[in-house]
Amino acid sequence: MHDLLQRITFDKDVLCGKPVIRGLRISVEMILELLAKGAAWEEILEDYPELEPDDLRAALWYAHYLLAGESVLDRVPV
Length: 78
Prior knowledge:
two-stranded antiparallel sheet; 2 strands
């Protein structure tokens, strides 16, 4: 997992410091949104050829890492 998380980078000059994949202008947020909307991994990798399968895994691990510390969710935003 640690190796995967190293694929997530932050740079104030790239997408205003949002977490991105390997310094690319592809945000973790966008990848998670595509997956949540039902896009297949193969479709994402085809549409963004600079991405690798481990980049998608890294986005999922990053989301998991952020949520792992959550203890109570009062309500889910709609």
